[in-house]
Amino acid sequence: MDYENCERIAIILDTNILHKSRKSINNVSKLPLKRYDDAIFMLEINDMIEYVNIYIPEIVLLELSSQKITMLENQLEDLKKLSKEFNNIHEVNIEGHDEFNIKEHIEFIKDEVFRDVNCIKIPKNRDDMFNYILKMSLDKIPPFNINKDSDPGFKDSILFLSIISFAKSEEFEKYVLFSKDKIFKTNEKIMTKIFKEKTGKKLEIEETEDVQGYIANKFGLLADFWKYFHNNFYPFMVNEMNEFKHVKINNDGIIFNQINDKECEITLAFSQEFEDNIEIDDVSMTIIFKKENEKWTNDFDIDYFKEEIIY
């Protein structure tokens, strides 16, 4: 596809989009950036980097680092308790955790991440930024909540002002913020107006986690796959699930990942509701699709689905 006539887009990922990645591995030496890495890979294999790019705001990386520190502190505390429990068993030796400096470890990871990812920096003039944040808070300008007395919007306001500052110096025509934070989508009309006034450019807010699906639909990537998925596979799934009255496909939880031009995967999430309106956490499964002899096939196993995924 010729992308030259398409508007140039900067995609920005909020903390909750990265943190919610179902496939994120709980690795003590990494921040959860798989969704960012997968989206960048998709752009690269489709030669789209010149027209679309993915960014993570600095405030998001700082928040992820803080969350990682808290998680490691809790895990280290559990390890210390476990070490005491096994203290008198000679065959078991748990050592080294006392010397582990969590904050130094996270600082090292953070420095590495800042070098490797496309980062939207917090505005340099902090005094002006904080004065404006104070005004936003007092005037209840989104992302500060108009309808509540409390103000949970401090981090979100830094994110929003960072994007505005970034847009003033960049040549993208549209900036798309992916966030599950309701304050953004609820106040999209106000915030896009402010953004337009400050930058002269367009802002779009997306609540979905499916970053790659958005890119694919926007630029017509793998059109034959999506035709197969919507016309064949998805109706087949809905029909098979008629057997399970308590189970529904969570359409907001469909996540697309392109592996190459002839292979991709879809993660489907299922919500389950039993008697007395008791709900359990969503379960999910990932299905591999391959294009062979100009036809799309998949590795979906209906028996496994019924026995292992559906309770």
Side by side, the strands of the main sheet go: 3-2-1-4-5
Count of extended strands: 9
Query: Could you tell me the radius of gyration in angstroms?
Result: 23 Å
Low-confidence parts lasting 5 or more residues at pLDDT below 50?
Answer: none
Sheet with most strands: 5 strands, parallel
Count structural domains: 2
SSE order, one letter for each helix or strand: EHHEHHEHHEHHEHHEEEEH
CA-CA gap between termini: 43 Å
Task: Indicate the overall shape.
Answer: globular
Average pLDDT for all residues: 81
Percent helix range? 40-55%
* SS element count, helices: 11
Strand content bin = 15-25%
Structural class call reads: alpha/beta
Explain this structure to me?
This protein has 311 residues and is α/β, with parallel strands linked by helices. It has 2 domains: 9-211, no CATH class; 222-309, Nuclear Transport Factor 2, Chain: A. Helix content is 45%, strand content 21%. The strands form 2 sheets. Strands 3-2-1-4-5 form a 5-stranded parallel sheet. A 4-stranded antiparallel sheet has the order 6-7-8-9. Helix 3 runs antiparallel to helix 4. The longest helix is centred in the first third of the chain and has 28 residues, at 58-85.
